[in-house]
Please model this.
Amino acid sequence: MASVAHQGSAETIAQFERYVIPNYRRYPVCLVRGEGSYIWDAEGRRYLDFFPGWGCNLLGHCPPRVVEAVREQVGQLIHVPNTWYMEAQGAFAQALSERSFGGQAFFCNSGAEANEAAIKLARLHGHAQGRYKVVTMEDGFHGRTYAALSATAQPKYHAGVEPLVPTIGRRPSWSSRSRGKGGSISLHPSTFPACAGSATSGACC
Ligand SMILES: Cc1ncc(COP(=O)(O)O)c(C=O)c1O
Model:
């Protein structure tokens, strides 16, 4: 692989401090290259990477088949708006369907958008009966868009941006219950008729 010259980590960090809104806490390391389970920083230090990129990097860094497929695609068409069809998207949807539950895919750009869609689908499902409430668990994280943020039952994410989207019910997660916050989990249909969202808990970004 041809080596590319990089500026030092300190210069990149200074650039971020000047030009990037600091809404994420970052480690003071600028990563420049990855291969399998290893990554390298701008100073040439190699790290063994135990972090799967919030689930986005499960195949490791730069697997050759994926790199080759991406290169081939961006050399043909780099963007196709949703107002047209494209072969690769149809093939991907079919592969997803055949490897999962046989349904149809909804493509979007982020986890938050996926959870927004899940909330809206649940509401569409219950709309005729006036069922609209959504249950999520304390300490979960569902994203930073408004409904996903409202579903994220962690007050530190809400401070200063309230009021939140109404009708998101919250129940203690197993982890908060075990920490002694108490409460019980009630998913009885008459209480919370339409349930959606990724009931994840723990770490968040
Ligand atoms: C469990 C979970 N749901 C939703 C999200 C939001 O995803 P995104 O940042 O792609 O909007 C995250 C992000 O880390 C997440 O960990």
Q: What stands out?
A: The mean pLDDT is 84. Residues 109 and 200 are 19 Å apart (CA to CA). Strands lie at 31-35, 38-41, 46-48, 134-137, 168-171. Residues 79-107 form one domain.
